[in-house]
Design brief:
Layout (H helix, E strand, L loop, with lengths): L12 H14 L6 H14 L2 H22 L7 H51 L1
């Protein structure tokens, strides 16, 4: 009984890396504590920006329309000038309100996520030591 046992092994680091990347796409995703901390911090840092931008941009548009009425670019009656001045004041109020709106939303998000963020920081700090 003369059996020849041979072993053939082919390895390609590039292929293995590709295979692992494809595999990773289909595995259920679990978030690590560091990833959760980064995600929550990003949520807090970005909170209030859309609201304040809407207020500022909306105020600017209203102000511009009021300015057009006041300078008689649109229409030429005294009533349109008065309405334009009032719209300008409303527009300025919208622009001025943008920053306080941002601060209120930011503080609200900070208070909402602060306990979990501090808990994660404590866990990760203890794990690092």
């Amino acid at each position: 009984m003369n059996q020849e046992n041979t072993f053939s092994y082919r390895y390609s680091a590039k292929e293995n890396k590709e295979i692992q990347e494809i595999r990773r796409k289909y595995l259920p995703r679990s978030e690590s504590k560091l990833e959760e901390l980064k995600r929550l911090d990003g949520l807090v840092q970005a909170s209030g920006i859309p609201e304040s931008l809407c207020s500022g941009i909306g105020g600017t548009i209203v102000f511009g329309f009021g300015f057009c009425l006041t300078t008689q670019l649109i229409g030429s009656s005294m009533w349109l000038m008065i309405i334009g001045a009032m719209l300008g004041i409303v527009g300025v109020a919208g622009m001025v309100a943008a920053y306080p709106i941002y601060r209120i939303c930011f503080r609200s998000a900070k208070a909402k996520y602060q306990p979990r963020i501090l808990e994660l920081v404590a866990e990760l700090s203890n794990a690092a030591n």
